[in-house]
Amino acid sequence: MKKPNYRILIIMAFFAIYVIWGSTYLLNKILVTELPPLFLASIRFVIAGVIIFIIAWFLKYDLRISKRQFINTLIAGFLFLVYGNGVFVWALQYVDSGFGALLASTQPLFVLFLMKLMYGQKILPKAILGVFFGVFGMILLVNQQGLSFNENSLVGIIMIFSCILCWSYASVFVSKHELPVNQFVSAAYQMLSAGILLLLASLLFGETWIAPDQWSSSAKVSMLLLIVFGSIVAFTSFNYLLKVVPPEKVATSAYVNPVIALILGWYVLDEKISLQSIIAAVILLTGVYFINRKKRLFKK
Prior knowledge:
By secondary structure, the chain is mostly helical. It contains 13 helices and no strands.
């Protein structure tokens, strides 16, 4: 039997987290203007989790997991999807999708510092240079006259940064802890548990649930794309990469996501892209490039 070409699998997985996830900022922005954020996130992850379970069962993967693996998937699901994604979607009510993606591009900075604090990973001089570029880029990005911030916008920005920190810690957590070996099984448990938690949170916060037959056509299409591509394809690819590639490499999805989100936000939602935002994005992404510029691709 011919062995799979893991390099091709890795390239395809990176394409998924680079391009597909870059488009999810737009899709979430479309949905959050029409549906309650926790409600829409819960629907997305419950359906995606059930579908992934069905796929794993059809492919005859072993769905049994140990108690330790189950606890770790619950933790990962909460960090990634309940807080990291659910709260991020909520914050998009007050922040443009492209701008939110630019904020999220600071994730490699967070991963770098977490790896240093938690595992003593050495910070190279080029990484320090990257931090300088990243901080300067963020100052330039946020401090511009073309952006009209109010109290809610600032709250949205603060919550987005907390989501980035949560997502970054989860990336390190998954790379270092025992989860189901099969990525379909791991993603299924994470998504279904996160979807159920988000449903409970939606009830707790008193969100109004809207039946799908009352959604607009754009909302239905956006939800379908999020479930199939943003959740099933991209999140499974993400879990796979965290096991075969260093987490700071996986965080380089932050290079491409903002570019895709800015372009789509401008083209579809007519969101404005200022010259200062473009300059800030170039500076910031230069910073994360320096941080993650390594020749090594596979984990040792």
